[in-house]
TrEMBL record:
Signal peptide region: 1-22
Protein name: SGNH hydrolase-type esterase domain-containing protein
GO MF terms held by the record: hydrolase activity, acting on ester bonds
GO aspect biological process, one term: lipid metabolic process
Top-rank taxon: Bacteria
Length: 676
């Protein structure tokens, strides 16, 4: 059977929707045959039947939905919609709606949070399920089809021709995908006897392994699978508001039923809401004859020599859980271990190998004793048995933390001075972790190329000739008019009476309470001068450096989405107050001023594509289980919780991740041609 190649966003002529299978996702028992007069004989119509088929739950990371028929049906409907659209808003809304309706899906997605590895049964499946039926079943309504297959097991040998059947195919031993099977359907004629109307097709599954490595722009920082639940605050923060600062509405996560955010991987703040998952999902839904195994190891805060090639002991989520052990394995080495095939008993064949040694490059002017590099080591693994599963593509996001992208933004956010000794002490502590644009630029020129070269060399050993795709880092500092974001009170009419007006959260006076005088509050923002310095010196230079490296080393640099994000920075929006106002409780009037925090939805579509500090505080604040070095002794518990949440500030929203992910998917589709 000839098959038209599948283009991304367009299902081929053989793509299978629920309609093509008579709306039969659960495959009910075949109904009693209709009288033969109910439909003309196929021969009288000049009808030549043909088959259509698809891999069930082909985005395998979410295949736990198959245990619930309603969820499985919803997933297949979602895949059909996503396959047929390249509209970012449609893609965003449908994925958000699907995930919100299944708030525990991220807990059942083959990732062992404690062991920090993927299930071997996920990486090495033993079977694939195929749904196959008549491409155009209407002319055959009322007739019976007899089904046979040369490989695998059919769930039934006979069914009404308007219904589909399920075929379970074995996986090829040690390889991804299934062996080919010839599936045949014979249509009955008058009297119920098999006739000469026969059609067949060859069914073979190709299982594509797509890997995600990198930093917070790949993990989904700022976008937890389940955000902080503020519903309990609808009627106010409670009587404790005026009694004890620790009991104010963001002071303790357990107060009034406020629930902490939840992540696919809590340590790394990794969620389903990220560009790499979008790319893999879009790729999967557009390939009905293929399965996609998606492995993400991305971790917020990761850099080449702090997470990818060497360990990242304490990523942002480390402070959220008192029982969490420091992370021991680098992302690349964990990937190597996970890909080792299981032995006869189903256990991993991964074994420790000699530690890998690297020379971490240093910026001369900032390095101790002006050293050019320092020796670092990483735990390593090897496969004790056969080699590990082959990687088909790698999605990468690296470079930002290597040059200090986030610390530069943080430095620009902080006020130049504090109004009191307490604020000055906090400011000094926080500024110690920032990076100046000049140092960031030096890292871009001196150390980033050498760090990326070390990563590329190791990736050639691990992923072979698999394409490596890296998206550019978008700039967060321009508003709706394309100009750099200015003062927060720009275009706001007059002063507000409530204390949170035009204020973004900050470590000193994070929430505007009566015990924090206005002059001691910090307004966190990036003004036009800072934006004009940060964008060309850091963002543009960083992307230029990565693009040049990609060109010279065979990586694929994706940036065609960037122009559309140029007017979607953190200050973009119809109302500047929307970006800067905090919900404020009036004890006198017993009501929320400005807006009710219980109505906050971090996944509603907005003009801005980046989280403001307020967004981050409302979306992922939770009580710390471990102290933050240096500042825990001087900040209140409430301030610490919100300071920790600021790791999500100035990161892309899921809208931005969809825009970036769809561009990656388009290029991924070009790099990995369809099976047939």
């Amino acid at each position: 059977m000839n098959v038209k190649p599948i283009g991304l966003g367009t299902l081929c002529a053989l793509s299978v929707s629920a309609a093509a299978f008579g709306q039969d996702p659960a495959i009910p028992e075949a109904p009693a045959p209709l009288p033969m007069a109910a439909a003309p004989a196929p021969a009288e119509l000049g009808y030549a039947p043909s088959l259509a088929w698809r891999v069930e739950q082909r985005f395998r990371l979410w295949d736990s939905v198959k245990t619930n028929p309603a969820d499985a049906d919803a997933a297949e409907r979602l895949y059909t919609v996503l396959a047929e659209t390249n509209d970012a808003d449609v893609f965003h809304d449908d994925v958000v709606g699907f995930l919100k309706g299944r708030p525990n899906l991220h807990r059942k997605a083959h990732w062992d949070v404690q062991a920090r590895r993927y299930d071997l049964s996920y990486i090495y499946p033993t079977t694939y399920t195929i749904r196959i039926g008549m491409k155009d079943p209407a002319p055959l309504a009322g007739r019976t089809c007899q089904w046979t297959t040369t490989v695998g097991v059919l769930d039934r040998a006979q069914a009404g021709c308007e219904f589909s059947v399920l075929l379970t195919l074995p996986a090829r031993a040690g390889l991804a995908g299934s062996p080919p099977a010839t599936v045949t359907a014979i249509v009955t004629v008058a009297g119920g006897e098999p006739g000469q109307l026969t059609t067949s097709d060859t069914v073979e599954v190709r299982d594509q392994l797509i890997v995600s490595l990198g930093d917070s722009f790949a993990s989904g920082e700022g976008n937890p699978d389940v955000p902080t639940n503020l519903a309990a605050l609808s009627a106010g923060p409670g009587a404790e508001w005026n009694a004890d600062w620790k009991q104010r509405w963001m002071g303790r996560a357990a107060l009034n039923g406020i629930r902490n955010p939840s992540w696919f991987d809590p340590a790394c703040h990794r969620s389903f809401y990220n560009q790499h998952l979008v790319a893999a999902l879009k790729f999967a839904v557009a390939r009905p004859h293929e399965a996609v195994t998606f492995l993400s190891y991305a971790c917020s805060g990761a850099a080449v020599f702090n997470g990818l090639l060497t360990s990242q002991p304490q990523p942002p989520g480390y402070r959220d859980d008192p029982g969490m052990a420091p992370l021991q394995d680098a992302q690349v080495e964990r990937l190597v271990a996970d890909l080792c095939p299981p032995d006869a008993g189903g256990a991993s064949t991964a074994a420790p190998a000699a530690a890998r040694t690297y020379q971490k490059p240093l910026v001369k002017d900032w390095a101790p004793w002006s050293a050019a590099s320092e020796k670092v080591e990483a735990n390593a693994f090897r496969c004790a048995g056969p080699p590990g599963r082959r990687i088909d593509a790698v999605l990468m996001s690296v470079g930002g933390n290597d040059v200090g992208f986030a610390p530069v933004i943080q430095g620009a956010l902080l006020p130049r001075k504090a109004a009191d000794p307490f604020g000055t002490a906090i400011l000094t502590l926080v500024r110690a972790a920032t990076v100046s644009p000049r140092e960031a630029n030096a890292r871009i020129e001196e150390t980033l190329p050498r760090s990326l070269a070390a990563l590329a060399a190791r990736m050639r050993q691990v992923s072979g000739r698999a394409p490596i795709l890296q998206a550019s880092y978008p700039s967060p500092v321009r508003g709706s008019d394309g100009r750099f974001c200015g003062p927060l009170d720009e275009n706001l009419p007059g002063a507000r009476s409530h204390p949170s007006a035009r204020r973004l959260v900050a470590p000193s006076g994070i929430w505007p309470d009566q015990d924090v005088p206005p002059e001691a509050r910090w307004g966190m923002s990036i003004d036009q001068r800072e934006g004009a310095l940060t964008e060309p010196v850091v963002v543009t230079s960083l992307n230029n450096s990565i693009e040049l490296f990609a060109l010279e080393n065979g990586w694929v640099f994706v940036e065609d989405f960037a122009p559309g994000m140029r007017t979607r920075g953190w200050c973009a929006g119809d109302s500047r107050a929307e970006n800067s106002d905090l919900p404020d409780w009036s004890a006198k009037d017993r009501q929320w001023v400005t807006w009710n925090p219980a109505t906050w939805d971090p996944y509603a579509r907005r003009q801005r594509y980046f989280r403001t500090p307020n967004d981050a505080a409302l979306t992922q604040a939770q009580e710390l289980a471990r102290p933050i070095p240096a500042v825990s002794q001087v900040l209140t518990q409430r301030q610490l919780a919100l300071m920790n949440a600021l790791s999500g500030a100035f990161h892309p929203t899921f809208q931005a991740h969809v825009t970036m992910g769809l561009s990656l998917a388009n290029r991924l589709n070009s790099e990995l041609p369809p099976a047939r």
